[in-house]
Amino acid sequence: MDVMSRKERERLAHRSEILRAAEKVFALKGFFQTTMNEIARTAEFGTGTLYKFFKSKEDLYFTLIDEKTDEIYTKVQAELTREAPAIERITNVLFFELEFMERNRDFFKIYTSEGGRFEWSIQNECGKKVHEKMVRYIHLLAQVFQQGIDTGELKSFNPLDLAHAFEGIVHSFIFEWLIHPEPYSLVSKAETILGIFLTGAKEGKEEIG
Amino acid sequence: MDVMSRKERERLAHRSEILRAAEKVFALKGFFQTTMNEIARTAEFGTGTLYKFFKSKEDLYFTLIDEKTDEIYTKVQAELTREAPAIERITNVLFFELEFMERNRDFFKIYTSEGGRFEWSIQNECGKKVHEKMVRYIHLLAQVFQQGIDTGELKSFNPLDLAHAFEGIVHSFIFEWLIHPEPYSLVSKAETILGIFLTGAKEGKEEIG
DNA sequence: TCATATTATGAACCACCATTCTTAAAATGG
DNA sequence: CCATTTTAAGAATGGTGGTTCATAATATGA
Questions:
Q1: pLDDT, tens digit, for every residue of A18-59?
Q2: Res B6 pLDDT > 70
Q3: Which of A30, A104, B44, B108 has the fewest CB atoms nearer than 10 Å to its CB?
Q4: Where on strand C do bases come within 7 A of a protein Cβ?
């Protein structure tokens, strides 16, 4: 049952088109170097039209990030709060993340570049929202690690430290994949990531004799 | 023996003062939001004077990064190419890095924000230089891991993957430390980082014996 | 000290956008 | 079809900030 009028539906469609165009341009040039004009041209709208949907460039930018992060975070959250061994949940989340980034290269370029600008982002009203969501995600992850420790699956490191370490590794693999000139499957790195994170780099002393 | 004239020495001193001021302002506001005017005011020079030392804002920015990275990379490089067990070298480098960042909070804010802007940075002539240095560093690290694998100290993961994972963890701990409101010792996290990286998160099933 | 050369200065210039606003076009509906 | 309302457009506006340059300040050295 469609409760929206044709007008409303069209309006929404136009909004998404603008967001899609913005994503492309922001990913290519970063926030400060993309102009509203260019986004408008890419989306095939007039410049003024953008302001019918978003009250400023910042608003457009953060809305973009906010809606996309929601898309992945809801999925990840569902998996993390499931009833299952911690390692299994972490593994699945890793696959989610990698697969999502593989399908949303542009988005991650924007997302990752947010990392650098925290001073500015965090001051900003919309930026704060995005940042809080990242924090909540890390804490959720830490909670799962805590459970893994409790069940004896994991060593008793500080769970928040584990979460940071895990995200650090994942992030750096995604980053590497992004700047790599010839594309390869990001998901194929999952085994490696898990291997290093779970069993560590050091060769276990195999005291044979 | 001083081969520089007083003039030359003064000129050099002024240059450093400008760089120091720039570091402070860039760290606080990021590249696009700091103005040459503000850097000049901070350094107590006229705006035009900056252009006697640096041909543009970009030049100033990348010179800053370039010279600081040299400072740490030479130290790190010396340690990495030393004759010693791989794990020992990695451990020392980790302490270097953390200690350096602890003394150069501002610099790392700039450095990390470079991560995000790779499209732009890499196109840029000066940016390319900085990027190449990062790549060289990672490869050096990978080489050490390779040696560690050869000597049986480390498991035979792909050494480049190990290097990325290691830097990912370190980076994420530094990042966390940066945004944390009340300061704590970064160096104190070294044990944790090494623990996670070397032995992994999973509780050991005491493989064989 | 004074004439000259050198250097520093910051006001002015100019290009660049985010945003607004007038105008033109398209819906609407009688 | 026409009158009226709604919406889209992109030119015009205003503010900003990197860079330059004419001038002031300072140094030099005779």
A1: 999 999 999 999 999 999 999 999 999 999 999 999 999 999
A2: yes
A3: B44
A4: 7-12, 16-22, 28
Count CB-CB contacts under 10 A for residue B182: 4
B47 CB-to-strand D distance under 7 Å: yes
CB contact under 8 A, B172 and A176: no
Most A CBs within 10 A among B161, B177, B179, B194, hence the mutation to make, goes to B161
pLDDT reading at A17 higher than 50? yes
On whether both A76 and A127 belong to a single domain, the answer is yes
Mean pLDDT of A99-128: 78
The residue from B15, B34, B54 where one domain ends is: B54
Per-residue confidence (pLDDT) for residue A208, from 0 to 100: 43
Q: How is residue B9 written in tokens?
A: 């020495």
- Using CA of residue B33, residue B37, residue B39, residue B42, what is the dihedral sign? negative
Looking up tokens 């520089």, which residue turns up? B4
Q: How far is the CA of A56 from the C1' of C30 (A)?
A: 39
Instruction: Round and report the angstrom distance from CA (A106) to C1' (C24).
Output: 36
A203/B155 CB distance under 8 A? yes
Considering only alpha carbons, which residue of chain B is nearest residue A152? B203
Global pTM reads 0.91
φ, ψ (nearest 5 deg) of residue A154: -120, 155
CA A41 to chain centroid: 27
Residue A206 placed within a domain:
no
Residue B192: give the domain boundaries: 56-201
Q: How far is CA B70 from the centre of its chain?
A: 9
Mutate which: A89, A139, A202, vs B, most B CBs within 10 A: A202
In a shared domain, residues A151 and A70: yes
Helices (runs of H) and strands (runs of E) counted in chain A: 10, 0
pLDDT of residue B205: 64
Give B79-124 pLDDT, tens digit per residue: 999 999 999 999 999 999 999 999 999 998 888 877 656 566 666 7
**Which CATH number covers residue A38?**
1.10.10.60
